[in-house]
Amino acid sequence: MTSVPFPCARTGSIAGFEGETNATMTEPPDLPLADHCLRRAVTDVEAWLALVEQGQLASLAPFGQMFVYQLRTQGKLADKAFAVDELYKLYYRRAGGTGSPPIRRYDGG
Predict the structure, then answer these.
(1) Domain map (residue ranges) of the chain
(2) For residue 101, what pLDDT is reported?
(3) Contact (Cβ atoms closer than 8 angstroms) between residue 33 and residue 97
């Protein structure tokens, strides 16, 4: 995937003309990647919670079991929005997304 150049914000000391300028590059969020990660998180959470309701936690892959266990220990197993948000952030980071994921909160829609 090719990244599009983004204008950089320049800060520095103009008074005195020291010639030093600190440039801060800000990369735009990768919206297609974020969308893919969110869809994947929603699909996985729905599937995993359905298996838990059916008493089939053991049929999940180890990562899914660990994630469900963490939700349970945090008292968040019934909070689908929380689960999707946490998994989405993890998927976005693992996929190489930079900075905070651009989609802030799963609304269940």
Answers:
(1) 29-94
(2) 86
(3) yes
